[in-house]
Design a protein that fits this description.
The chain is mainly α. The protein is built from 13 helices and no strands. The chain folds into two domains: 92 residues; 130 residues, Hypothetical protein, domain 2 (Endonuclease III, domain 1).
Length: 247
């Protein structure tokens, strides 16, 4: 029982640490209230695709320098010469790991935002204030997915900009999360997504953190440098004391 309490305390502490070192200072809340700011945040989440923080930061800064995060300018260029805009984006993202997919995602989603939300992602709330429906709308953007949708919404909720309940957003059961839960002995079959979802929901409730915060902790622990699929460095893991694999 004592070990369980310590485990939950450890998860709460790790969730605060992970949240602090993620995107907590980017962009500033005042800017995030604007259509420009929320679009910039959207693109940041979009590009966070299996790349380390340094590369992500450098990529975002390069796009900002060339005004590819300026929604107004992008909209104008899309209307006047889409082919030229596409070429310039490919050049700007040439060093990014998934540059072709990223260029397509930026253009497709830009058109989606213009068509369905009048150029302002905050207008998603004009359709519904129901957390599940808002999450589905964000999740429908091209190349976004459950994890990015959760991170995107969580930051807006944490800044007091979107009046939603992040507790209702399910944990994205990606391979890292499933691997760590299995090695901790919390799930019997890591390929059973229903079991993973149920265990993660119960674990986040008992630890007193949201499923998205739990996801961030498990995803960080499941990094290849700590708890990889083929290689583990248990001495680096903050959860090694509670891990059945170690015991």
């Amino acid at each position: 029982m004592k070990r369980k309490r310590e485990f939950f305390t450890c998860l709460r502490a790790l969730s605060r640490i992970v949240r602090h070192i993620s995107y907590s200072d980017y962009p500033k809340t005042a800017k995030l209230r604007t259509s420009e700011g929320i679009f910039e945040w959207f693109i940041t989440c979009l590009l966070d695709q299996s790349v380390n923080t340094t590369i992500l930061t450098q990529t975002v800064e390069k796009l900002r320098k060339h005004y590819f995060l300026n929604y107004t300018k992008l909209q104008s260029r899309l209307a006047t010469d889409k082919a030229k805009l596409e070429g310039d984006l490919k050049e700007a993202l040439s060093s990014y790991r998934y540059h072709n997919r990223a260029v397509k995602a930026i253009l497709v989603n830009l058109e989606h935002i213009i068509r369905d939300y009048k150029g302002n992602l905050h207008n998603i709330l004009s359709f519904s204030r129901d957390t599940a429906e808002v999450w589905e709308r964000v999740n429908s953007f091209y190349w976004f997915g459950t994890k990015k949708s959760g991170v995107f919404i969580r930051e807006l909720v944490n800044r007091g900009l979107w009046p939603l309940s992040v507790e209702e957003i399910p944990i994205p059961p990606d391979s890292r999360v499933r691997r760590v839960l299995f090695r901790l002995g919390l799930v019997k079959n890591r390929d059973d997504l229903k079991e993973v979802q149920e265990v993660a929901s119960e674990l986040s409730r008992k630890a007193g953190i949201t499923p998205l915060d739990l996801d961030c902790v498990l995803w960080t622990v499941g990094d290849e440098s700590i708890c990889g699929e083929r290689r583990t460095s248990c001495e680096k893991c903050p959860l090694d004391y509670y891990c059945i694999k170690v015991l």
